[in-house]
Amino acid sequence: MLPPGARIPLRVVVPGGGIEAEDMVPKDPGLMTETEDMTRFGAEWSGMKHLKINFAKPDDGRELSFRAEEEEYDVAMYVTHGPGYGKIRIEQSGQTIASYDGYAPEIKPGGKVMLTNVKAVNGLVRLEVNADGKDDRATGFAAGIDAFVLEPHRSFIPEWHLIGPFDNPRDENLNRLGLDLVYPPEKEIDLSKTYQGVGKKPVQWTLTKTPARGRMDLYQFDPYEMVVVYAHTYIYSPKEQTLPLLLGTDDGVKVFLNKTPLHRVLTVRVVRPDQDRVPLPLKKGWNSLLLKIENNYGGYNFYARVLDPGHTLRISPTRSE
Ligand SMILES: [Ca+2]
Ligand SMILES: [Ca+2]
Fold it and tell me: Which of 17, 74, 140, 229 is least surrounded by Cβ atoms within 10 Å, i.e. has the fewest?
């Protein structure tokens, strides 16, 4: 362990999966923008490059845009600071959503500037980057932008009918078999029926609200380890269309749409939103969406949402409204 004085100061590193600013092509590229290799200043720049916008004077502006499949995001914009960098204002549709001062005595990663409630219109996010003055010590008005990291505002399926637990037995090699054992909900959806669950205990469908942050916990089932539970809802589509179902599960999952299995993952994992992406071929009218969630040990939960930017769907476990 190095003594504190000898440690390299911690600098901001952009997490993976971002959009490189240097890969964005401004609408009318000209002398104002350049892609700059940053390796001589350190290893913290994502893709080793950034986009430099050489504003000449206050109120100069440049639009940046990127494609986006969700409606709204919180966006972390990673910027560069340095002697030639000015005060920068970011606008969307004429509204200021963030501003920062890019001045520093030396070129360095400037960390992230948070842009909240950023909206996509027709699948495109447009941001207006504007010069807004400069520090007295700054030698220019430039903006240095490394990358954008997007966090969508997720809308999870708000309510489900749940039933279980059913047995998730293991074979002699400890493979879990429950995901592929066919229990009654795979043959019929009859929300009034009672079936035999683990230990011959009667089990029934229960209407359950998804908690505010979207994670449906399945600990309320007794037992909740080495079991499977089903979650069911109906989805009304005004037309035939295929939309993505985004799932996170602990542990395995099988997805049935209108009784047809579409997706199967037998694994052990900690749940996060959007771990799996399953295209849902919805028919016109009501569709039956059935998830089968299985558990090994410990954590037992899932996240589920359908990407429907046009708000075409009605999702209702009771097929009402
Ligand atoms: Ca970059
Ligand atoms: Ca688990």
Answer: 17
